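Re: weekly structure request thread

Next one in the queue (111 aa):
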Amino acid sequence: MKGRTLVKVILVRHGETDWNRSRRIQGGKSDTQLNSEGRQGAESLARRLKSEEIQAIYSSPLSRALQTAEAVARYHRMAVMTVPSLIDIDYGEWQGLSPHQVKDRYRTLYA
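Done, posted below.
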């Protein structure tokens, strides 16, 4: 592969939030924070990635994603670049509800 530069992309999902734990739907308008498990997970990820040669870190501006990215960034002494287009889908009225609640309230749409 002469003349080609390989780029390694590492995709990471945010750490756990209370809404993840309780299986509530969270999307672009639910700016939930990492819980203690999520913060520990983000720190564990950061330690795992500290030896990687990272040149840029991008994140959604939502707290849960940004907190996760910032944990990694600390080991690399880098700033996280927030990108609004990385925000999760907006689930509208479904946000904050459990899948069971959505199925009960919006049976036709859920199907």
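The chain has five helices and two strands. The longest strand covers residues 58-59.
Next request, please.
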